[in-house]
Amino acid sequence: MSLRVNDLRVHYRTLRGEVKALDGVSFTMADGEILGLAGESGCGKTTLGKSLIRMDGRMRHAGGTVELDGRDLPIGDDKAMIAFRFHEVSLIPQYSMSAMNPTRRIGRMVAELLRSRGVPLDVKELESRLDLVGLPREVLNRYPIELSGGMKQRMVMVISTLLDPSLLIADEITSALDVSTQQAVAKALLGFRESGYVKSMIFITHDLALTSHIADTIMVMYAGRLAEKAPSNKLTKAPRHPYTRLLINSLPEIGVRHQDRMLKGIPGSPPSLLDPPRGCRFRDRCPMAGEECAEDPPPVEIEPNHFVACWKA
Amino acid sequence: MLKVDNVTKVYKVGTFGGKTMTAVDAVSFDVRPGEVVSLIGESGSGKSTLGKMILGLVPITSGSITVDGVAVKPGKEYYRSVQGVFQDPFSCYNPVFKADRVFQLIKESYYPAVPAAEWTERVRSAIRDVRLNPDEVLGKFPHQLSGGQLQRLLIARALLLDLKLLIADEITSMLDASTRIDVLNLLAELKARGLGVLYVTHDLSLGHYLAERTVVLRHGTVVEMGVTAKVFDDPLHPYTRQLLSAVPRLHAPWEEAAPVGSCLYHERGGTGGLLEADPGHFVACAQLSNC
Ligand SMILES: Nc1ncnc2c1ncn2[C@@H]1O[C@H](COP(=O)(O)OP(=O)(O)OP(=O)(O)O)[C@@H](O)[C@H]1O
Ligand code: SF4
Ligand SMILES: [Mg+2]
Question: Which of A242, A14, A158, A50 is nearest to B139 (CA)?
Answer without folding.
Answer: A14
